Amino acid sequence: MTPLNEQEIQQYRTETRGVAGLIHFNNAGASLPPDVVPDTVIDYLKEEATNGGYETEAKYQVQLEQTYDLIARLINADRDEVAIVENASVGWGLVFNGIDFKPGDEIITSEMEYVTNLMGFLNAQKNHGVVFKVVPNDEQGNFSMQGLEELISAQTKLIAITQIPSTAGGMMPIVEIGKIARKHGILYLVDACQSAGQVPVDVKEIGCDMLSVTGRKYLRAPRGTGFLFVRKEVQDKLKLILMDSFAADWVSETEFKIRNDARRFELYEKNRALTLGLGKAIEYALNIGVDRIWQRVQYLAGLMRTQLSAIDDVTVHDFGAEQCGIVTFSVAGIESAVVKSKLAEQGINVSVAKAISTLIYMNKNHLVSIVRASAHYYNTEEEIGVLCEALKAIRD
């Protein structure tokens, strides 16, 4: 694998108008898109306005269909296992709530699980009498595979794991977890919200039954885009939460037949312009190579952690053997929101990670809020240096 070189980085920055005006380290919130993405969306909307919505859709039908092929390539799935949805939470909720839970069924998750997913577990607990169990990280901050095995019982219905948490730079070993899920014949749901576009994602290697993704983060796609993977063999085992004439066909006045692919989880009406934008963003990432993107992201994040750790009164909170592009830290005596605000005054975007996002982990580590700086391949070493100098000035 050939690392991204300086000439390539400059090309990608030239093709991203947003980098000219600021330093963007909020890629875990929403990346700056390459210019081709908003241009595609805007041009499509202009055509809708002048030619009509249905007519424009017909003109771009081939390109719209290609988005499914691009998603399938990105995650190594079959195109009939892919549905386009508004975001990862929608996709996750469609399949999670489609599982036929019974009283006493058990869900296993990690302490890094996202708040929306935890709320889903609690809702299933209240409505269906299920139990959810949490595998704690070990002293080094790694997910405990032994702990997972010990929690599995005859009642375990689902293992649900967020690969990259919202408020930490560590990662869950989703491939190893998948092997255990398959060994025990347990449904396996992966939240890859922060993963796709940053880390190579291969659903066949992971062995997951379902996987949800959002577009706006490391994929550099528009907000309001995402997709869902549902393994072919699992599709008929999930109830449909919503249904229209796109998800199913009329057979007679008293019968309908659910379509034979993952698009059963979609509804007919969606934003076609954003679908094309999602496709363009995925195509852009594939042309670079997600493995090369991942190498660059790891390098930049590692450099950022090293330089931040060298600053007095700055504490880096990331953990685990494998770490990603999300870097979390705090500045002694200064609230995270104040740090964010002062950096913004200097044209540097970061975000504040609040306890609510991953409550179990944050409570365990006595963290209320931390600063989250998330690097992407189009960021530079110089930008990291500017961030660190700005933090020194804030601290002083």
TrEMBL record:
Cofactor: pyridoxal 5'-phosphate
Keyword ATP-binding: no
InterPro entries the record matches: Aminotrans_V_dom, Aminotrans_V_PyrdxlP_BS, PyrdxlP-dep_Trfase, PyrdxlP-dep_Trfase_major, PyrdxlP-dep_Trfase_small
Keywords: Aminotransferase, Pyridoxal phosphate, Transferase
Source species, domain of life: Bacteria
Pfam families: Aminotran_5
PROSITE patterns attached to this UniProt entry: AA_TRANSFER_CLASS_5
Domain Aminotransferase class V, first and last residues per copy: 25-385
GO function term, MF aspect, one: transaminase activity
Entry's family note: Belongs to the class-V pyridoxal-phosphate-dependent aminotransferase family.
Stated name of the protein: Aminotransferase class V-fold PLP-dependent enzyme
